[in-house]
Every structure is written in structure tokens, then in C-alpha cells.
């Protein structure tokens, strides 16, 4: 197999013709496939069905602290649920606020809170001329959507295999209008990057100009390993931050959305005592409390971190073949032709494919033409602007392995075709 | 029995002495009773326990529209839940947005949305010099806490047996900085007032100066009748508003918090198409969707409005004796002495007691001294300022009938004692 870069124009033309014919054949099939959805597949959801039996009409719905779980009360979560969430991200349960059904909601509310109230007595961001956020790219579109929604200027930070480039971060935080950064430190969305120890340490040691600068540490995939024997671990950001007196600089987020049921899970925020008090002083106006029965349901089903880990290994067994199939296909069809890069993730929900520069939009459009929906071009970037038009987020979990395999084959054909055309046009 | 107002000073002194002796005896008992909590009692919660069986590991968790209830998706609620909520407040299901576990949360978010985003393209309230809200009093402390939290100036509106005094409301809305009003139209908190047809019509016909003026119609007690044969009904505000082209002026709120389980219920917002689109255009950044499994659980258990009504009659059977005991005791001990007024509610969660002017704080303090917790003085008023220091909110549902009876007797003794002292001091 020859790299496209090494092909003659004639070879490229022949390749293009044959790929175009193949593409036309695929189109004629009228497929309807989808690799865009970062959702668990049905088999994964089935694993959590027994959770719906652990709370029933015979259950004594009392918290260990005596609270009737069926009545009003408890703003920050029942102690059992605090412990469960704390065990996921390895912090003291005292640092946990158990939120509602969605960590996205807790992150949105946190930005909203900072925007109209200010953090810990600082000027509300809405009263400032300019507020900026750092956005490691590629990243999670819904993070960027929140900050864009609040009119916050987003600044791209490049990523490498160790996480965000800390030189860029350290430089950027000297600007007092830079108020935060979005991070997915473990199995990052979409690349699956695991922040190195040095990266975490440098985050923990940051000396931002803005006192109300906060790291939004979205540990969304903390327990989402693909392998039993090869699991990434990252340093505990709070432990590191403590060494620099920087505990107040961090909000950590996680949830069981992709552990139990998306939409019916529980979310958690971890923060310093000072930040928690600040959050609760506002939250007490917003709600009397979140769903304590559902908190208890999660505790009764998973019991502890070991229970969650065992459950996640069952999920891994289901989705690992999907990731591996994709990795193998890209290794066979794309790598040798020199027309794309990706990292083989050890966890998380995505594979991030980097096409030749200027090809992502066209690949996604042609996939659509062939009946395969991909995540929108530019999605993993602020303002949906991929500066190189090259990143495509692939979400392997939702389709069956069979459907995914069919979709992946179409994708690979399209990547080849578009790359070919691109090179011919140069 | 003589009215205190008709007693001689000597008679009052004798009365005071005997009451003081009684009060000292009560204090010696070291009671610990509570009439402050607007929460369902345990027996009421027991009624909903079978709801925890209708969804289990064998349930097919698919919405009628095909959505897997266990996965991401559906911002505004599953169609079945929209219908159930719509049936509670008698509107078209298309007008419903099913919110999370708390209508308070949905009201807070609505004010927050108006504050930092603006309603339907209008200037966000945070950008305005002055924003005012009308607050019918006595009213719900958590409503007032929200508007106070956002720095919104609150203006008292007096109530009578027909609801808020509409002359005051109509006059006040001529001020363009008046942006909203809190209403609990049926079995109002705390008086149990039911808005008359004329009141609802005049609300529906309001011509406020501010285009983004909204009526926050918190129909919290819409199905919370105390009697089978004597149930208040109010006019449908949306039907009336339609006659004046005023549908966009209303946000209606309700929930199942005091139907199923507080904290584990579902809430609903009803609004015009234009308002719903406006809400959803923001909400889509805040969450992917609320807990659909819990939405379905409510539908599977209650089925429809008839199911809810039947359930609420079982609740009524439990709490009615508590309301009636209080009503009887006040009728026997307070009314003939001319030292307090209240309305006998047909539904809702409270009895609002109006003591002699200047006595509420002292009554509440003395109850505390005797081991009986009452809702804080001033609570039913903006800024917790009861202009006459006379209103005391009584919450009969949470204690057992036995405890409530004991607490009520203490309350009555204290009301007599404080009234006596007040009259002697004059």
C-alpha cells in the first residue's frame, strides 16, 4: 500500500476513479447509519436495569442520617451518595455536592452563577467588560456552547499527548480577564488524551491573574476504561493544588450518566469548602434539594467504587470491540496511505480522527450523502471553527458492532476519496 | 366567653395571670413540637410507595414516541408526561415543558433567564436600572426569596377573599419597571384564598407597560383539595388571556411534589408557543434533558387526571382532620375572644392566622419558648417584613394529629396570653 503523498498524479487519478465508483455503489444502498452520538448503546443500558429493582415499595427510604428520602430536604445530597460520588473521583465526601440528573446542568449553573452573581464575592462576570475562557482543542462542544452562550470569549489552547499545552495556559492566565478553562482530564473528549502528571501539577500550580479564575475539571470519563489491564490514572488535582494553596481554583464535575442511565443518573460537584459554601448560598434559592430517592437508588445498586468499577468493566466488554474494530480499520486503510491520524483511546467515548488539512467538512458532507451521519464539522472547537478543518469526532458506542462496521467502511472510503480529490486539486 | 376588647382591666389581669400559670406549666413539659413545615406527613408519602414498583427491571422503558427513556434526549419532556401535567392544570399538552424535580427550580430558572438573558429578546433585567415585582401578601416566602436574591424590588399587593386587589395590580403595572407578579391562584400560600373569576379575568386582561411583564402563576395546589364535595375551581388563565391576545403574559407552574414525593416528583411549566421556544432556546445549553424514567414512573402510576384526583382524595382523608381540628380549636378558643382571624381553607397546605396587630413576633417567640416551632415571623412577606406584625403561617400536615393537637393547644394559649399582655400594655 502506497502513501498518497508518494503517488503519481496518474495513480491518484486511478485511485479517485475507483473510489468514486465504490462511493456511488454505497450511495445506491440508501444506508442510514450514525456515528455521531456519544450515547451508550442499548446493551450498556440493559446492564443497569436491575438498578430499577433495588428501590421498591418495600424499601425503607431513610438515609443513614435519618432523613426521610421521600420528603423535602437536604440541599447538597445524602451522605451515602456523597460517598459514592467522592469515591469515583477520589476526594473527601465532605467536598461533594450531589447535583441533579446532569453534570452538564451543574456546569452550566456554575458558569451562570459566576456570570450573574460572581464567584466568592468577586464581581459578577456580566458586569465586566470582557471575560475570556481557555478551551483546549479539540474539546467538548457542549462546554464551548455554554461559554459562547454567555458571551464569553473563547481562546483555543492546543493539546498534545500530555493534555493542554501548559506553556500556552500559563501565559494566557496572566490576563486578568481570563476567568476559566474547560478540562476533560481523563480520556478527553474527543481524543481520549490522559493528562500527564506534569500537566496536572502545572494546572495545580497555576498563578492566574484573576482571583476568580477557575479550572472546570470535567472528569466525565473517570471510570470509563476500555481495558481491565490498561487503565489510565491521573493525579488528584485537589491533592496537588493543596500543595500550592490553590484548592479554591478548582471545580471538579462528574456524573453517573454513562454509568447508569443518561438523564436518570446523578451528578456531583467537588470543590473546596469555601467554594461549596459559595455555591450553596445561591443554590438554596434555586431548589430545596435534588432527587434523594434516585441518589439512594444509585447507592443501593452500586454500593461503592468497586461496584462501579465492576459495572464499567461489563460496559467495556460491550464497547471495546467497537473501538478496536475502528482502530484496526483505520490502521489498515488509513495509516498506510498517510491520510489521517488518531490516537487509540484507553477509555472514554470517542475517537478523534484528524484528516488531511481542509478535508473534514467535505468528508462529513460526503458521509452524509452516503447515509452516514457524523458529528458536525468543527464541533470540537469553539465557535465550531476548526482552524485546520481536519478534526472529525467518531462516536462508536451507540450503533451495534455490525452497523458500526458498515458505517466505518463507508467512512474509510470517503476519507480516501476526499483525500485523493484534495491532493489532485493541489 | 367574652371578647378581650370587652373585658375590664381587672378581668384582663386575671386572665393574664391564669394564662401565665398555664404557660409555665406547658414550658415545664419540655415539649418539642413543630407546626412550621409545609411538608406532607409520612402517611401521605406511604400512599405513593406503590409508584416505586411500576418501573422495574422488567419494564419496557420506551416512550410512545419511540424514545428509549434510559438514554439521552428529549429536552421538554416525554409526550405521556406532558399530557399528565397538562391534565393537572387543564391546558393543551403542547403548552407543557416538563421540568426537573422541582417547580421552585423552574421558577428560579425562569427569573434567572429573564435576569441575564431577557425574555423573548427584551433587555435582560440585569441591564436595567430598576426591576420591580408585585407580591400579593401574605404569600410564599420562597417566591419572595428568589426575587430578593436577584435584587428585584418587591411591592406588596394586598389580598382579600377574591385574591390580590386588582385595582392595586392594574395601577402598579403602569410602571414599566414592574416586570412580574407572583401568584398562587388556588388555595394560596398561606391563606388558602381561591382567586375569583373576576380576579382571573382582570389578570388575563392586564395591559402592563412592560412588554416583558409576566404573571408567574404558581398553581402549586391545583389538585390539593381537602374535601370531595367542596372543591374550588378557578378559571383557566390561558383561556381567558387568549381573549385579550395576552397568552404570552403568563408562565404557569405546577408539580407533583406534594402529590407523589417532594424532591422526587416532576414539575411542569405551561407557556405560550413563543415563550416555550424562548425558554427552550436557553434550556438547550443547560441540559440535554430531565429524568425521563421518573416522568414515565409518574405516568405509569397515576395514568391520568382521574388517577391523580383519586390519589389526592386519599391524601385529603389523612390531612383533613388536622385542618379541621385547628379550625375547630381556633373557632372555640380564639374567635369568641376577638383576638384573631383566619380563613377556613378548602385546600392547600396552610392556615394563615392573623393575630392582633403587633403580636405575631411575640406569639412565635413564646411558642418557641414553650417548645413549639412556628414559621418565622414575617415569612409570608417580602423582606420578611410583616407591616402589621400579625400574620402567622400554620402548617398542619407534617405532625401527627396527636402532636398537632398538642401544639395547637399551646399555640392557642400563647395567642391568648400575648393578646392579653398587648391589651394591658395599651
UniProtKB/TrEMBL annotation, chains A, B:
Molecular functions per Gene Ontology: L-aspartate:2-oxoglutarate aminotransferase activity
UniProt superkingdom: Bacteria
Keyword Endoplasmic reticulum: no
Signal sequence bounds: none
Alphabetical UniProt keywords: Aminotransferase, Transferase
UniProt xrefs under PANTHER family: AMINOTRANSFERASE, PUTATIVE-RELATED, ASPARTATE AMINOTRANSFERASE
Name under which the protein is recorded: Aminotransferase
Organism ancestry: Bacteria, Bacillati, Bacillota, Clostridia, Lachnospirales
Amino acid at each position: 500500500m502506497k502513501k498518497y503523498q508518494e503517488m503519481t498524479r496518474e495513480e491518484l487519478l486511478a485511485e479517485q476513479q475507483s473510489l468514486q465508483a465504490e462511493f456511488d455503489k454505497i450511495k445506491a444502498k440508501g444506508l442510514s447509519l450514525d456515528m455521531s452520538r456519544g450515547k451508550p448503546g442499548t446493551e450498556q443500558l440493559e446492564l443497569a436495569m436491575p438498578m430499577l429493582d433495588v428501590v421498591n415499595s418495600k424499601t425503607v427510604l431513610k438515609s443513614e442520617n435519618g432523613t426521610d428520602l421521600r420528603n423535602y430536604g437536604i440541599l447538597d445530597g445524602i451522605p451515602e451518595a456523597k460517598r459514592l460520588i467522592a469515591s469515583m473521583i477520589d476526594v473527601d465526601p465532605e467536598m461533594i455536592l450531589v447535583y441533579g440528573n446532569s453534570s452538564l446542568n451543574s456546569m452550566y449553573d456554575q458558569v451562570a452563577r459566576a456570570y450573574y452573581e460572581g464567584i466568592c464575592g468577586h464581581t459578577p462576570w456580566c458586569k465586566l467588560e470582557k471575560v475570556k475562557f481557555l478551551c483546549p482543542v479539540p474539546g467538548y462542544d457542549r462546554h464551548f456552547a455554554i461559554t459562547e452562550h454567555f458571551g464569553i470569549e473563547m481562546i483555543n489552547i492546543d493539546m498534545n499527548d500530555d493534555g493542554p499545552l501548559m506553556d500556552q495556559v500559563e501565559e494566557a492566565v496572566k490576563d486578568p480577564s481570563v476567568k476559566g478553562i474547560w478540562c476533560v482530564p481523563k480520556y478527553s473528549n474527543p481524543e481520549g488524551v490522559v493528562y500527564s502528571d506534569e500537566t496536572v501539577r502545572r494546572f495545580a500550580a497555576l498563578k492566574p491573574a484573576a482571583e476568580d479564575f477557575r479550572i472546570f475539571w470535567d472528569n466525565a470519563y473517570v471510570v470509563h476504561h476500555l481495558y481491565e489491564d490498561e487503565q489510565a490514572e491521573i493525579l488528584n488535582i485537589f491533592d496537588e493544588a493543596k500543595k500550592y494553596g490553590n484548592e479554591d481554583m478548582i471545580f471538579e464535575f462528574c456524573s453517573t450518566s454513562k454509568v447508569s442511565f443518561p438523564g436518570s443518573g446523578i451528578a456531583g460537584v467537588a470543590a473546596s469548602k469555601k467554594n461549596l459554601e459559595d455555591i450553596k448560598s445561591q443554590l438554596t434559592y434555586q431548589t430545596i434539594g435534588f432527587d434523594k430517592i434516585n441518589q439512594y437508588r444509585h447507592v443501593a445498586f452500586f454500593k461503592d467504587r468497586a461496584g462501579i468499577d465492576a459495572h464499567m468493566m461489563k460496559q467495556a466488554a460491550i464497547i471495546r470491540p467497537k473501538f478496536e474494530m475502528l482502530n484496526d480499520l483505520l490502521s489498515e486503510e488509513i495509516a498506510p496511505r498517510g491520510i489521517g491520524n488518531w490516537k487509540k483511546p484507553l477509555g472514554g467515548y470517542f475517537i478523534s480522527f484528524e484528516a488531511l488539512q481542509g478535508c473534514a467538512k467535505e468528508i462529513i458532507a460526503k458521509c452524509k450523502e452516503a447515509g452516514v451521519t457524523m458529528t458536525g464539522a468543527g464541533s470540537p472547537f469553539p465557535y465550531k471553527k476548526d482552524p485546520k478543518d481536519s478534526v472529525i469526532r467518531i462516536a462508536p458506542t451507540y450503533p451495534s458492532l455490525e452497523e458500526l462496521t458498515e458505517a466505518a467502511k463507508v467512512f474509510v472510503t470517503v476519507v480516501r476519496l476526499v483525500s485523493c480529490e484534495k491532493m489532485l486539486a493541489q
